[in-house]
Amino acid sequence: MKKTLLISLPLAIMVCGFSLKALLPKKETVLNHAALHVYDLQKSTLFYQQIIQLDTVPEPFHDGKHTWFSVSSSSKLHLISGAEKNTIHDKFVHLCYSVPSLTEFISKLDKEHIPYEDWAGAKISVTTRVDGIKQIFFQDPDGYWIEVNDDNK
Question: H helices of 24-147, where?
Fold first, then answer.
């Protein structure tokens, strides 16, 4: 009886159009990390620690050319030194962080004399998206664009 059941169950699953994979819980795809090639690793590391408020995490290379940050429980940001200083980056390619208070974040940028703008490029302006989320854009020391918004609900 056991032998018949062991043979019949896989056959029944295949006949019904199922695979064993379909019976297992599906794992979602998550962003593991984003990597930025930076000119001055120390300056960029301080920027992401002090302005974006990211915490560093151990990196395996220990060569002085990398800084890794925790962005979420599953995502990291990797800074890798060695970039050319004068690289132009398009605003369409950007990192986005959500904060509890965009007003408080803007105060921090003002205190640090970091200019910001809305999506259209108007200086010291905030964009309100069609879904009501407020956002600003600014650049890190290497010219990479960063969006900060209040979609942290």
Answer: 41-50, 102-111
